[in-house]
Amino acid sequence: MKETFDQDNRLTVNGIVIKHRPVGEYDFTVTIITMERGKISAFARGARKPGGKLSGNVEPFCYGTFTLYEGKSSYNIIETDIINYFEPFRRNLEDTCYGTYLLELADYYATENSDETELLKLLYLSLTALTKDAFDKRLVRCIFELRALVIDGQYPGFPENRGYSDAVKLAMQHINGSDLKSLFTFRLSDQALKELIDITRMYREHFVDRQLKSLEILSTVERELI
Protein backbone atom coordinates (compact mmCIF):
# COMPACT_ATOMS: atom_id res chain seq x y z
CA MET A 1 0.00 0.00 0.00
CA LYS A 2 1.35 3.41 -0.95
CA GLU A 3 2.13 5.70 1.97
CA THR A 4 0.49 9.12 2.15
CA PHE A 5 1.95 12.15 3.94
CA ASP A 6 0.25 15.29 5.20
CA GLN A 7 1.42 18.25 3.09
CA ASP A 8 1.55 20.49 6.18
CA ASN A 9 4.22 18.28 7.72
CA ARG A 10 6.53 18.30 4.72
CA LEU A 11 9.94 19.89 5.01
CA THR A 12 12.61 20.52 2.38
CA VAL A 13 16.25 20.62 3.44
CA ASN A 14 19.58 20.97 1.65
CA GLY A 15 22.39 18.75 2.80
CA ILE A 16 24.92 15.93 2.48
CA VAL A 17 24.35 12.33 3.52
CA ILE A 18 27.17 11.46 5.92
CA LYS A 19 26.19 7.90 6.85
CA HIS A 20 23.45 5.30 6.72
CA ARG A 21 22.69 1.94 8.24
CA PRO A 22 20.29 -0.81 7.20
CA VAL A 23 16.98 -1.19 9.01
CA GLY A 24 14.84 -4.23 8.36
CA GLU A 25 14.93 -5.82 4.93
CA TYR A 26 14.46 -2.83 2.65
CA ASP A 27 15.08 0.41 4.56
CA PHE A 28 17.92 2.69 5.68
CA THR A 29 18.30 5.10 8.54
CA VAL A 30 20.12 8.05 7.05
CA THR A 31 22.10 10.83 8.75
CA ILE A 32 22.24 14.15 6.89
CA ILE A 33 23.97 17.42 7.69
CA THR A 34 21.54 20.12 6.60
CA MET A 35 21.52 23.89 6.45
CA GLU A 36 18.04 24.17 7.91
CA ARG A 37 17.99 21.65 10.80
CA GLY A 38 21.62 20.81 11.49
CA LYS A 39 22.31 17.08 11.75
CA ILE A 40 19.21 14.96 11.35
CA SER A 41 18.37 11.26 11.07
CA ALA A 42 15.60 10.08 8.77
CA PHE A 43 14.08 6.83 7.52
CA ALA A 44 14.51 6.06 3.84
CA ARG A 45 11.87 3.42 3.29
CA GLY A 46 12.46 1.03 0.40
CA ALA A 47 15.88 2.56 -0.34
CA ARG A 48 17.52 -0.88 -0.35
CA LYS A 49 15.15 -2.21 -3.00
CA PRO A 50 16.74 -2.30 -6.46
CA GLY A 51 15.02 0.27 -8.64
CA GLY A 52 13.28 1.92 -5.69
CA LYS A 53 12.61 5.66 -5.79
CA LEU A 54 15.25 6.37 -3.16
CA SER A 55 17.69 3.66 -4.23
CA GLY A 56 21.15 5.16 -4.72
CA ASN A 57 20.03 8.60 -3.56
CA VAL A 58 20.67 8.21 0.17
CA GLU A 59 24.21 6.90 0.01
CA PRO A 60 27.05 8.68 1.84
CA PHE A 61 28.38 11.70 -0.10
CA CYS A 62 25.05 12.40 -1.84
CA TYR A 63 24.50 16.15 -1.85
CA GLY A 64 21.22 17.77 -2.78
CA THR A 65 17.68 18.53 -1.66
CA PHE A 66 15.69 16.15 0.51
CA THR A 67 11.94 16.35 1.00
CA LEU A 68 11.00 14.96 4.40
CA TYR A 69 7.85 14.14 6.27
CA GLU A 70 8.23 15.40 9.82
CA GLY A 71 6.50 13.01 12.18
CA LYS A 72 6.14 13.27 15.93
CA SER A 73 9.42 11.53 16.67
CA SER A 74 11.18 11.00 13.34
CA TYR A 75 11.70 12.16 9.78
CA ASN A 76 10.88 10.14 6.66
CA ILE A 77 12.55 10.90 3.33
CA ILE A 78 9.90 11.20 0.64
CA GLU A 79 11.83 12.55 -2.35
CA THR A 80 15.37 13.54 -3.26
CA ASP A 81 16.96 15.80 -5.85
CA ILE A 82 20.65 14.89 -5.84
CA ILE A 83 22.97 17.51 -7.32
CA ASN A 84 26.28 15.72 -6.75
CA TYR A 85 26.86 12.04 -6.02
CA PHE A 86 30.63 12.52 -5.63
CA GLU A 87 31.27 9.43 -7.72
CA PRO A 88 35.10 9.44 -7.26
CA PHE A 89 34.57 8.42 -3.64
CA ARG A 90 32.88 5.24 -4.83
CA ARG A 91 35.61 4.23 -7.29
CA ASN A 92 38.98 5.05 -5.74
CA LEU A 93 40.14 3.58 -2.42
CA GLU A 94 42.40 6.51 -1.53
CA ASP A 95 39.66 9.04 -2.25
CA THR A 96 37.19 6.93 -0.27
CA CYS A 97 39.46 6.91 2.79
CA TYR A 98 39.86 10.68 2.77
CA GLY A 99 36.22 11.37 2.02
CA THR A 100 34.95 8.99 4.67
CA TYR A 101 37.22 10.61 7.24
CA LEU A 102 35.82 14.07 6.47
CA LEU A 103 32.27 12.73 6.77
CA GLU A 104 33.02 11.17 10.15
CA LEU A 105 34.65 14.34 11.44
CA ALA A 106 31.70 16.42 10.20
CA ASP A 107 29.42 14.01 12.03
CA TYR A 108 31.43 14.67 15.20
CA TYR A 109 31.08 18.46 14.99
CA ALA A 110 27.50 18.76 13.70
CA THR A 111 24.58 18.91 16.13
CA GLU A 112 20.81 18.73 15.81
CA ASN A 113 18.66 21.84 15.40
CA SER A 114 21.63 24.15 14.83
CA ASP A 115 22.84 26.31 11.99
CA GLU A 116 25.38 24.13 10.21
CA THR A 117 25.56 26.20 7.03
CA GLU A 118 29.27 26.95 7.40
CA LEU A 119 30.18 23.35 8.24
CA LEU A 120 28.11 22.06 5.32
CA LYS A 121 29.78 24.48 2.90
CA LEU A 122 33.21 23.54 4.26
CA LEU A 123 32.44 19.85 3.83
CA TYR A 124 31.19 20.30 0.28
CA LEU A 125 34.18 22.40 -0.79
CA SER A 126 36.62 20.01 0.88
CA LEU A 127 35.10 16.96 -0.81
CA THR A 128 35.24 18.79 -4.12
CA ALA A 129 38.91 19.66 -3.56
CA LEU A 130 39.70 16.01 -2.78
CA THR A 131 38.47 15.02 -6.24
CA LYS A 132 40.90 17.44 -7.94
CA ASP A 133 44.32 16.06 -8.85
CA ALA A 134 45.85 19.51 -8.36
CA PHE A 135 45.37 19.41 -4.58
CA ASP A 136 47.45 17.40 -2.14
CA LYS A 137 44.84 15.40 -0.23
CA ARG A 138 46.82 15.72 2.99
CA LEU A 139 46.60 19.51 2.73
CA VAL A 140 42.86 19.34 2.07
CA ARG A 141 42.48 17.23 5.17
CA CYS A 142 44.43 19.71 7.29
CA ILE A 143 42.44 22.66 5.98
CA PHE A 144 39.17 20.91 6.78
CA GLU A 145 40.23 19.94 10.29
CA LEU A 146 41.54 23.39 11.22
CA ARG A 147 38.65 25.33 9.70
CA ALA A 148 36.17 23.01 11.43
CA LEU A 149 37.78 24.03 14.72
CA VAL A 150 37.29 27.68 13.72
CA ILE A 151 33.61 27.08 12.99
CA ASP A 152 33.23 25.21 16.28
CA GLY A 153 34.80 28.10 18.19
CA GLN A 154 37.76 26.07 19.48
CA TYR A 155 40.57 27.14 17.16
CA PRO A 156 43.61 27.99 19.33
CA GLY A 157 45.62 29.81 16.66
CA PHE A 158 49.21 29.26 15.64
CA PRO A 159 51.36 27.44 18.23
CA GLU A 160 54.02 30.04 18.97
CA ASN A 161 57.50 29.20 20.25
CA ARG A 162 57.50 25.68 18.80
CA GLY A 163 59.85 26.27 15.90
CA TYR A 164 57.32 26.02 13.08
CA SER A 165 58.05 27.95 9.89
CA ASP A 166 56.62 31.28 8.78
CA ALA A 167 55.08 29.52 5.78
CA VAL A 168 52.97 27.39 8.10
CA LYS A 169 52.00 30.44 10.16
CA LEU A 170 50.79 32.22 7.03
CA ALA A 171 48.91 29.11 5.93
CA MET A 172 47.12 28.89 9.25
CA GLN A 173 46.23 32.57 9.13
CA HIS A 174 44.70 31.93 5.71
CA ILE A 175 42.77 28.89 6.92
CA ASN A 176 41.45 30.84 9.90
CA GLY A 177 40.46 34.07 8.22
CA SER A 178 39.76 33.57 4.51
CA ASP A 179 36.40 33.20 2.83
CA LEU A 180 35.42 29.55 2.48
CA LYS A 181 35.60 29.74 -1.31
CA SER A 182 39.21 30.94 -1.05
CA LEU A 183 40.42 28.20 1.27
CA PHE A 184 41.93 25.92 -1.35
CA THR A 185 44.08 28.46 -3.15
CA PHE A 186 47.57 27.81 -1.80
CA ARG A 187 50.26 25.16 -1.79
CA LEU A 188 52.95 24.23 0.72
CA SER A 189 56.40 22.71 0.40
CA ASP A 190 56.78 19.14 1.60
CA GLN A 191 58.47 20.28 4.80
CA ALA A 192 55.85 22.92 5.56
CA LEU A 193 53.06 20.43 4.89
CA LYS A 194 54.64 17.96 7.32
CA GLU A 195 54.66 20.73 9.94
CA LEU A 196 51.00 21.53 9.29
CA ILE A 197 50.09 17.85 9.55
CA ASP A 198 51.89 17.70 12.89
CA ILE A 199 49.99 20.74 14.21
CA THR A 200 46.69 19.35 12.97
CA ARG A 201 47.35 16.03 14.68
CA MET A 202 48.21 17.81 17.92
CA TYR A 203 44.98 19.83 17.83
CA ARG A 204 42.86 16.82 16.89
CA GLU A 205 44.21 14.80 19.81
CA HIS A 206 43.44 17.69 22.15
CA PHE A 207 39.99 18.71 20.91
CA VAL A 208 38.41 15.54 19.50
CA ASP A 209 37.46 13.39 22.47
CA ARG A 210 36.52 10.16 20.74
CA GLN A 211 38.14 7.60 18.49
CA LEU A 212 37.46 8.14 14.81
CA LYS A 213 36.97 4.78 13.11
CA SER A 214 38.15 5.96 9.70
CA LEU A 215 41.38 7.49 11.03
CA GLU A 216 43.38 4.27 11.35
CA ILE A 217 42.83 3.33 7.71
CA LEU A 218 43.50 6.87 6.54
CA SER A 219 46.71 7.06 8.57
CA THR A 220 47.94 3.93 6.80
CA VAL A 221 47.15 5.50 3.42
CA GLU A 222 48.98 8.70 4.33
CA ARG A 223 52.09 6.86 5.50
CA GLU A 224 52.28 5.30 2.06
CA LEU A 225 52.11 8.76 0.48
CA ILE A 226 55.05 10.17 2.45
UniProtKB/TrEMBL annotation:
<comment type="similarity">
    <text>Belongs to the RecO family.</text>
</comment>
<keyword id="KW-0234">DNA repair</keyword>
<dbReference type="Pfam" id="PF11967">
    <property type="entry name" value="RecO_N"/>
</dbReference>
<dbReference type="Pfam" id="PF02565">
    <property type="entry name" value="RecO_C"/>
</dbReference>
<dbReference type="InterPro" id="IPR037278">
    <property type="entry name" value="ARFGAP/RecO"/>
</dbReference>
<dbReference type="InterPro" id="IPR003717">
    <property type="entry name" value="RecO"/>
</dbReference>
<comment type="function">
    <text>Involved in DNA repair and RecF pathway recombination.</text>
</comment>
<keyword id="KW-0227">DNA damage</keyword>
<keyword id="KW-0233">DNA recombination</keyword>
<protein>
    <recommendedName>
        <fullName>DNA repair protein RecO</fullName>
    </recommendedName>
</protein>
<dbReference type="InterPro" id="IPR012340">
    <property type="entry name" value="NA-bd_OB-fold"/>
</dbReference>
<dbReference type="GO" id="GO:0006310">
    <property type="term" value="P:DNA recombination"/>
</dbReference>
<dbReference type="InterPro" id="IPR022572">
    <property type="entry name" value="DNA_rep/recomb_RecO_N"/>
</dbReference>
<feature type="domain" description="DNA replication/recombination mediator RecO N-terminal">
    <location>
        <begin position="12"/>
        <end position="86"/>
    </location>
</feature>
<dbReference type="GO" id="GO:0006302">
    <property type="term" value="P:double-strand break repair"/>
</dbReference>
<dbReference type="GO" id="GO:0043590">
    <property type="term" value="C:bacterial nucleoid"/>
</dbReference>
